[in-house]
Design brief:
24 helices, about 50% helix, single chain, elongated, 7-stranded mixed β-sheet
C-alpha cells in the first residue's frame, strides 16, 4: 500500500467533499480522507490503481488536482494569483457587482426610467446570470449527476427561476409584471461576495501552518572542497541539499535542514517547533531542527534529513493528516449535509404552493419567497463548523509545540479529569548520574565492562546513563541480547552464560535487598548493584499545580521502587502513586482508571507504550522512544512537559468552538428558512437571503479564529 496525497481546487462545502469521497469510493480506494477547508485529499493505493486516471476523474467532476499536499500552501497561493481571466471569484465578483449596481438602484430609492426598461435590465442581468451559471451551474449539474447535490444547486435553481420568470414576462408581453432580473443579479453577486469573504476568512485558519511551511524553503551556505582540498562556500537553495552535505550557518540565519553540529556552538531559537522563544545552547554533536534560527554563534553542520524526512515536514504532515480526520461530532453534521439540499428544495416547493394556494399571495410573491428559501439556506455552515475549528485549533497547537496526530484526540480532551504521569524521563529529566554502586564476585573493571556491554543496548534513560558513564572499548560480544520491557536487559555470551541487568523484580530470587536501581546477575548470581540519581524537571511542579487548580486529578505511575516514587510524588504534590509497575500492570492500571474517569497519560518509555495506547488520550514527549511516540495521540515537542496544560486547554476549547459553530449553523437554518418562507424579508428577500447566506459561514470562521487568541487554560 502507498499513501497518495493530493490538493484539489473547487471544493467549497462539505457536499463537495462528500462528492469526492463518493467518487473515490467507487474507484475501490481505501482509507479515503477529504478536507474541503484545505482542499486536501488522501487515500491508500496499490500498484494496480491508475493514479493518472484518478486525477482525470477528479477533474471531470470539477475538482482538478493542483499538487501534492506537501506543497499545499504554495498551490493555494498560485490558485488565487495566476488563474485565467474571469475564473477567479474576485474577478467574477467585480464584473457582477459593476453590472448589478444599476439594477439595484431602486432598492435604495433611486428610480431611473431607462433602467425600468425590461430589455435594458435583461442586458445587465444576462451576463451576470451566465457568470453564475458557469461558476455555480456547472458544479450543480455535476453534483446532481454524482447523486450528491450541493449548495450550488440551490443557487442555480433560485437564480434560474428568477431569470426564467422575467424572460417569460417579456415573451408574453407583460414584462413589467414579471420583472425579477435584479433578483437573479443580486442573488449571484451577493453569494459571490460571501464566497470571497468566506474563502479569505478560511485561509486565515491555515495561517499558522502557512508560517511553518514558509520556513521550509530558504538559502543555505553549502561547504564544498576543490581539487586542492580548499574549502569553498557557495549559496544554494536548501531544497537541493542532500543527507551528508556540509553547511555553514551564521548568526541570524535559519537552519536550512535538520543537521548535526560538527564544529562550533551557538544559541538557537527553536520557537517555530517548540513555541518557546527562549534560545537554547547547542554545541558539537547536538542536533539542529530545520527552520530554527541561530541567534548568536557560527556553526558547521552535516545534513541528517531532507525533504519529507525533516522534523518540520513531519510536523506539517501530521497536522494536515489530523485535519482530514473527522471526530465523532462531525458525523452528525455530515449526515445532515448529505440530505440538506433535497430537503431545502422540497421546502421551497412547499413554500411556493402554500403561499400561492393557501395564503392567497400572487404567483410573483410566492415565487419570490420560494427563491428566498433556496438562497438563504446554507448547507456549507454544517460542513464548515468542525473543519474550521479544527484547523485553527491544530494550527495554534502546532505553533505552541503541541502536535495532535488526529482530530479525535482534540475531542477526547473535553472530558479529561485525570492525568497519569510516568516518572523517569517525564516528570524527571531522565539525565541520571551514578550515585553509588557495589561490585561482588568480580573486580570493578570487569563489573563495569559487563554493565556497559548490557546497557549500551538499552532504550531506558537509566540504562543509557550508565552506558555513557562506563563506556568501554572492550565490550562483550553477545550471542543473544534482548530488552525486557519495564524490567531490564538480558544477554547470553558465546559460552552460554546468562547475564541480567535490571530492576529488583527480576532479581528477587538472588537478593532481598531492595531500593537499588539496577541489579546485575550472572547465571542467577548477584554480581552487584547500581544507584543513580535523577532530578525533577524544573517545570513539573508548576504543571501539576496548574492541573490541580483546574480540578484535574494527577497520578504517578512508575516502574521505579516505592521510595523514589514516594519522594517525587510528595515533592510535586501528587497524592496517588503506583510503583514497581510492569508494562502489563501499567496497562491494567490505566484500564481500571479509564473505567472510572476519562484519563490522559503522559509517558516516554517503551514500557509506557501499551498504557499510552489504552488511555483516553495518550501523550508522549518528542524525545521519547519511537514506540511511545507511535502509541500516543499527542506529542509534546522539545522537552515540552510545560505545554501539557496548553494541550488540554486547546483540546477542550476546540471542542467547545465546534459545538458553538454547529449550534449557529443549525440555528441559522432553522430560523432563516421559515423567515424567508413567510415573507418577512420583504420584496428584496432573495437579495437579503443571498447576502445572509454568504455571511453565515463567515460568522463560523470568525468564531473559530477566536481560538488563535483566547485564553484556553
Amino acid at each position: 500500500m502507498e499513501r497518495v496525497e493530493f490538493k484539489v481546487e473547487g471544493m467549497h462545502c462539505s457536499n463537495c467533499a462528500l462528492t469526492i469521497d463518493k467518487y473515490l469510493s467507487k474507484q475501490h480506494l481505501q482509507n479515503i480522507k477529504v478536507n474541503f477547508v484545505t482542499g486536501d485529499i488522501s487515500f491508500d493505493s496499490t500498484a494496480e490503481i491508475n493514479i493518472e486516471a484518478i486525477k482525470t476523474g477528479l477533474k471531470s467532476i470539477g475538482y482538478p488536482v493542483l499538487s501534492s499536499i506537501s506543497n499545499s500552501v504554495t498551490a493555494e497561493k498560485k490558485s488565487w494569483t495566476f488563474q485565467s481571466f474571469l475564473k477567479s471569484k474576485i474577478q467574477l465578483l467585480v464584473v457582477s457587482a459593476i453590472l448589478t449596481i444599476p439594477l439595484s438602484l431602486h432598492m435604495f430609492g433611486l428610480h431611473l426610467h431607462v433602467l425600468m426598461n425590461p430589455y435594458v435590465q435583461l442586458a445587465f442581468a444576462l451576463p451576470i446570470y451566465l457568470i453564475g451559471l458557469s461558476f455555480f451551474g456547472t458544479s450543480a449539474i455535476r453534483s446532481i449527476w454524482k447523486g450528491i447535490p450541493n449548495m450550488n444547486v440551490l443557487i442555480t435553481l433560485g437564480s434560474t427561476a428568477a431569470m426564467g420568470y422575467s424572460i417569460y414576462g417579456i415573451v408574453i408581453g407583460r414584462a413589467e409584471e414579471f420583472m425579477f432580473f435584479e433578483t437573479a443579479a443580486t442573488t449571484i453577486t451577493f453569494i459571490l461576495l460571501g464566497n470571497v469573504i468566506e474563502d479569505r476568512s478560511v485561509r486565515q485558519t491555515q495561517k499558522a501552518l502557512q508560517q511553518l511551511a514558509k520556513s521550509q524553503k530558504v538559502m543555505a551556505n553549502m561547504i564544498a572542497f576543490d581539487n586542492n582540498h580548499q574549502e569553498q562556500i557557495f549559496e544554494v537553495e536548501n531544497t537541493i541539499l542532500r543527507v551528508g552535505d556540509l553547511v555553514l550557518i551564521k548568526t541570524g540565519e535559519q537552519v536550512p535542514m535538520d543537521c548535526k553540529i560538527l564544529w562550533g556552538d551557538a544559541s538557537v531559537n527553536e520557537a517555530i517547533i517548540t513555541g518557546e522563544s527562549i534560545p537554547v545552547q547547542k554545541q558539537m554533536k547536538d542536533f539542529l531542527i530545520g527552520g530554527s534560527i541561530l541567534e548568536s554563534g557560527t556553526l558547521k553542520a552535516q545534513i541528517t534529513a531532507v525533504g519529507n524526512e525533516t522534523v518540520l515536514s513531519n510536523i506539517l504532515k501530521m497536522v494536515l493528516n489530523a485535519q482530514t480526520e473527522k471526530p465523532p461530532i462531525q458525523q452528525m453534521a455530515d449526515k445532515i449535509s448529505a440530505i440538506f439540499v433535497p430537503v431545502v428544495i422540497a421546502i421551497a416547493l412547499i413554500t411556493l404552493g402554500v403561499n400561492y394556494w393557501f395564503a392567497h399571495q400572487t404567483f410573483s410573491e410566492s415565487l419570490l419567497r420560494s427563491i428566498a428559501v433556496l438562497v438563504i439556506s446554507c448547507p456549507c455552515a454544517m460542513g464548515l463548523a468542525t473543519p474550521a475549528a479544527i484547523a485553527v485549533g491544530l494550527g495554534r497547537a502546532a505553533k505552541s509545540g503541541v502536535l495532535f496526530k488526529n482530530a479525535k484526540s482534540l475531542e477526547n480532551f473535553k472530558n479529561i479529569k485525570q492525568v497519569v504521569f510516568d516518572k523517569t524521563g517525564t516528570l524527571t529529566t531522565g539525565k541520571f548520574d551514578i550515585g553509588n554502586y557495589k561490585n561482588l564476585l568480580v573486580d570493578e573493571t570487569e563489573f563495569k565492562r559487563i554493565v556497559f556491554s548490557l546497557e549500551k543496548y538499552s532504550n531506558h534513560p537509566i540504562g543509557k546513563c550508565v552506558a555513557a558513564e562506563w563506556k568501554s572499548n572492550n565490550e562483550i560480544r553477545w550471542a543473544k541480547i534482548e530488552e525486557l520491557k519495564g524490567l531490564g536487559m538480558r544477554a547470553t555470551d558465546k559460552e552460554g552464560n546468562e547475564f541480567v541487568a535490571g530492576s529488583y523484580q527480576i532479581t528477587t530470587s538472588v537478593t532481598t535487598e531492595q531500593g537499588h536501581n539496577i541489579y546485575v546477575t550472572k547465571n542467577s548470581q548477584l554480581l552487584g548493584w547500581i544507584d543513580v540519581a535523577d532530578t525533577i524537571r524544573p517545570e513539573a511542579k508548576q504543571v501539576i499545580q496548574s492541573l490541580h487548580s483546574a480540578g484535574i486529578h494527577t497520578v504517578l505511575l512508575s516502574g521505579d521502587h516505592k521510595a523514589n516514587c514516594e519522594k517525587v510524588a510528595n515533592e510535586l504534590g501528587i497524592k496517588e502513586f503506583y510503583f514497581e509497575q510492569s508494562p502489563q500492570q501499567k496497562l491494567d492500571t490505566i484500564t481500571h482508571l479509564n473505567q472510572t474517569i476519562p484519563t490522559a497519560m503522559v509517558g516516554d518509555g517503551i514500557n509506557d507504550a501499551p498504557a499510552l495506547a489504552k488511555a483516553t488520550v495518550g501523550i508522549s514527549l518528542s524525545e521519547a522512544t519511537q514506540i511511545a511516540v507511535q502509541s500516543s495521540q499527542v506529542v509534546l515537542m522539545s522537552h515540552g512537559l510545560q505545554h501539557l496544560p496548553q494541550a488540554l486547554g486547546i483540546g477542550k476549547h476546540t471542542y467547545l468552538t465546534i459545538k458553538q459553530n454547529l449550534f449557529w449553523a443549525l440555528a441559522y437554518n432553522v430560523i432563516a428558512i421559515p423567515v424567508a418562507a413567510y415573507g418577512l424579508l420583504g420584496k428584496f428577500a432573495p437579495a437579503y437571503g443571498a447576502l445572509l447566506m454568504g455571511l453565515s459561514d463567515v460568522v463560523l470562521v470568525i468564531n473559530s479564529l477566536r481560538l488563535k487568541w483566547k485564553k484556553v487554560f
